[in-house]
Amino acid sequence: MRLFLPLATLVALLFIASLTVGSTAIPVGEALRGLFGGDGVVPMVMQEIRLPRAILAASLGASLGLSGAAMQGYLRNPLAEPGLIGVSGSAALGAVIALQYGIAGLFGLALPLMALLFALLAVLLILGLAGPRGGSLTLILAGIAISALAGALTSLALNLSQNPYAVYEILFWMMGSVADRSMHHVALALPIMAIGWALLATTGRGLDALTLGEDAAEALGINLRALRLRLLIGVAAAVGAGTAVAGAVGFVGLVVPHILRPITGAKPSTLLWASALGGAALVMAADILVRVILPTKDLKLGVVMALIGAPLFLHLIYKTRREMN
Amino acid sequence: MSLLTLETLTVRRGQCPVVDGVSFQIGKGELIGLIGPNGAGKTSLMRAALGLLAHEGRSSLAQMRASERAKLAAWMPQQREIAWPVTVETVVALGRMPHRPTGAKLSAQDQAQVDKALDRMGLTGFRDRAANALSGGEQARVLIARALAQDTPLLVADEPIAGLDPAAQIATLRVFRDLAAEGHTVLVSLHDLSLAARYCGRLLMLDKGRLVADGTPAEVLTEGNLATTFHIRARVIDTEHGALFQPIDVLP
After folding, report:
1. What gap in Å lies between CA A86 and CA A89, rounded to an integer?
2. Which CATH number covers residue A191?
3. Is there a contact between A218 and B77 if contact means CB atoms under 8 Å apart?
4. How far apart are CA A231 and CA A242, in angstroms?
5. pTM here?
6. Residue B112 β-bridge partners
7. pLDDT tens readout for residues B180-190
8. Domain limits at A232?
9. Distance between CA atoms of B79 and B77, rounded to whole angstroms?
10. Which top-rank group of organisms is this from (chain A) (predicted)?
C-alpha cells in the first residue's frame, strides 16, 4: 500500500503530460479545458487525437505489466512474459494478413478485428494443445510452437508480397505505436482489456500459493485448472486486444515486474496491481519520449520501448549478479 | 474418530501399481511414521491420500472439495520450493490461506498462528529475512512452519527432516510429538529409522507399493521385516533412553 500512492500519482501525472505534449503547442489549461467540449481546433485535437492516444498508451501498458506479472507468477519464472503464450504473435499475424490482402482498407476497424480474431484462434489452439490438466511446461512448449508458427507465417506473407507499399506498412505496423488511433479503437480494445484485467485480478491468491509449488498450492485449496484457465484467457484478452490496436510492444511485461519485485516484497498478488500501474507509467513515458525526441520522424513506440527496456534489463542483470557475489 | 481412511488405495503408473491396495485408518492424536525403501511408494501414497494424484480405491480426504480439505489436512511436499524472495513471515502466512477469504488481511488469530509456528520452528529471528536466500535446511524449517500455521487436524509431511542438522531433526520430531499430544495427527515419511523408532507411536511400512506392516515400532521393526523390506540386518535395542535402532550390515 505504501507503493500504491506514488505509482498512482506517477500514472496520473504522465497521463496529463501525455495529453499536453504534442506537435501542436497548446497551453496546459486550454488543453485540459478542450477535453470537455467546445468548438475549434483545440477541442478536436484533444478529444480525437490526444485523448485516445493517452488512454491507449495507459491501458496497453497496464495490460502488458499485469499480464507479465501474472505469467511470471504462474510459471514461477522471472523471464516469463506475456508474449510467451503466442497470443501477441498471432494477433500480429492477423494484422499482417489484413494489411497484405487489403482487408484493412475495407472499413475502419478491420485491422484490429482481424488481429483479435487471430488472438482468439491462438488461445483456442493453446488450450487444445496444453490440455486441461497439463503442467506449466506443456503450456510453455505450446506457446513457443504457436509463436514460431505465427512468426513463420508473418515472414511468409512478407516474403510473397508483391506490393512494396503493403510490406512497408506491415513493417511499420509491427514496430508498435499508439499514434493516430481514434476513440473507435479505444471502444473496441478497452472493454476486452478490462475483461482481461478483471480475470487476472482474481489470480492473486492462487499465484501467492504457487510460490510453494503446484503440489503445495493445490493442497492449500487452489484449483489449478481454473486458475490456469483464468490466467490464459485474461492474458489473451488483455494482450490480444492491446496488440490488435497498437502492434507489438515488447519488454514492458518482462521489465516492469522485474523492477517492482524488490520494492513490493516479491509477493505475486501485490506485484499484479503494482505492475499494472508501472506498465501504464512506462508505456506512457515512452510514448511521450517518442513525441519529444524526434517529433517530425514518426518514431515508433515499440522501438523506443525496446531501447529503454533492453538497457534497463541489462542493468538489472548486472545488479542481480553483484548481489550474488 | 477417524481423520483419514484409506480403502484398497491403488495408484498406477502405466500398468504398474506403485501403490497397491493399501488400507488403513488414522485417528486423532497420533504421530505416524511412513517408512520404506526408495521407490516403495511413500510419496505416491501420501499424494493420492490427499487427492493430489489419480487413484483407484477410496481415500476419505480425496473425496472432499479442495477448499474444505485444506482446512483438515496440511501437506508439505518433498520438493522444497520457495519461488520468490518473499520474507519468511510471508511464506509462513501462506498457511493461513484456507482459513481466510480472498483479499482479507491476516486476522489477529491468523497472526497468532503464524507467530506460534515461527516460534515452534525456532524462526522468530528470521521473520523478515528473504526466505529463498536461506540455507536448504533453514528453508525446510520455514516450510514446516508454513504447514504448522495451517493449523489442521492432520499434517502430512514428505521427508521433512531430510537435510536438517541433527539438532533440527530432533527438534522437528519433538514439535510433531507435541502436536500429537495436543490432539493433532502427523503422518510423516522418514528414512531415519532410529528417529522413527524413538518418536513415532505407530509405523506404517511400505514395500513395492504394499503395506507390509502396521503397528508400534517394536512390532514393525522386526528382524524379519527389516531383512525383507530394507535388505539390512539391524537390531532394535531397548535402552534407558528408549528404543535404539542400529543397522549392522547390508544383506546380500
Report:
1. 5
2. 1.10.3470.10
3. no
4. 16
5. 0.91
6. none
7. 999 999 999 99
8. 4-324
9. 5
10. Bacteria
Domain membership of residue B125 as a residue range: 4-250
Please list the residues that pair with B59 across neighbouring strands.
B6
* B74 vs B42: CA distance, rounded Å: 17
Query: For B97, which of A209, A215, A268 is closest by C-beta distance?
Result: A209
**Angstroms from B147 CA to nearest CA on chain A:** 10
B238: phi then psi, degrees, rounded to nearest 5:
-80, 120
More confident residue, B220 or A323: B220
For residue B75, the chain A residues in CB contact (below 8 A) are: 215-216, 219
Taking CB atoms and an 8 Å limit, are A219 and B73 in contact across chains? yes
In degrees, rounded to 5, the angle at the alpha carbon of residue A302 between the alpha carbons of residues A297 and A308 is: 95
* Residue B92 near residue A208, CB atoms below 8 Å: no
pLDDT digit string (tens) for A185-204?
999 999 999 999 999 999 99
From CA A302, how far away is CA A289, in angstroms rounded? 12
Cell triple for residue A201?
485480478
Number of domains in chain B: 1
A83 touches A253 (CB < 8 A): yes
Beta carbons of B83 and A219 less than 8 Å apart: no
The tally of domains found in chain A comes to 1
For B72-105, the DSSP string reads HEEEE-SS----S--BHHHHHHGGGGGGS-TTPP
Asked whether A283 and A272 are in contact (CB, 8 A), the reply is: no
